[in-house]
Amino acid sequence: MADEARNSDLILQQARQSLANQRAGGRRRPLPRGAARIKARHWGRKAMNIGLAVLALWLGLSIVGSIIGGIGFTGLMVGIAGTVGAVWAFGRYPRFKLPQRSDLDPQSTDARALVGRTELWLESQRRALPPPAVKLVDHIGLQLDALSLQLADVDPAHPQAAEVRKLVGEHLPDIVEGYRKIPEHLRYEERAGSTPTKQFVDSLTTISAEIDSVTRQLASGAIDDLAIKTRYLDYKYGDAMDAAEGHQ
After folding, report:
1. Cβ contacts of 139 within 8 Å, gap of 6 or more
2. Pair (142, 225) in one structural domain
3. Which neighbouring-strand residues pair with 77?
4. d(CA 18, CA 26)
5. Containing structural domain, residue 64
6. Quick one: 8 and 128 in the same domain?
């Protein structure tokens, strides 16, 4: 009876957790900017392909029409059908492919592109994560957005760029994949005073703190530069402004 009661409690706990996961993962939310940029480039290429195909079609029809003295009703229908076909074909293909784990290469020289791919990959993992982890993953997505903006001006050979590639291309995906390999009914089973879910959330918290640390280190130069410029402007123009206010 005690075993049956424990099994019933476990089943109920898993059901509640599954429902919470679906609710947390199912909410619509804006894509992080890095991931959104990748999707925007994909749809931009689709739009360009459609535009070029339609332009080539109607240019060809106009050339034929100039030679034979007009394309007529049949030519017009061919043009419309061709336009619809081009929009359908190039709007449908090539399909957008979400990054796979193998696409997150920490040896990549473009840390900013790697950050964007990791954001997309994390988006695809949200539904399989527990609610506390989903919140952390969303927060990490915002952190990666800020980091991505900074990386635009960072030399790929900079030591911090290498640290970013290691962090988002290896450590973070490894932690998520390692958790997903654990059967769901074992994720909340306590061992040595902890559970796999708690360990997973703690690991994400550590990664979030490390991303914040790297972001602060990359920003330190810009912060110091702004402070120096502010002091210079205050030294150069501060007395003049005080004197002008004194005359009023």
Report:
1. 208
2. yes
3. none
4. 12
5. 45-92
6. yes
For residues 199 and 222, state if they share a domain: yes
Largest CA-CA distance found in the chain, in angstroms, rounded: 91
Q: CA 208, CA 78: separation in Å to the nearest integer?
A: 56
Calpha distance 244→59 (Å, rounded): 68
CA distance 44 to 127: 28
Same domain, 83 and 161: no
Backbone φ and ψ for 55, nearest 5 degrees, come out as -60, -45
Degrees to nearest 5, angle at CA 18 with 14 and 24: 140
Could you report the per-residue pLDDT of 204-241, keeping only the tens digit for each?
999 999 888 888 887 777 666 677 777 767 777 765 54
Residues 6+ apart with CB under 8 A from 33: 145, 148
pLDDT at 1 over 70: no
Could you report the per-residue pLDDT of 17-73, keeping only the tens digit for each? 444 444 444 444 555 555 666 667 767 778 888 888 888 888 888 888 888 877 788
pLDDT at 52: 86
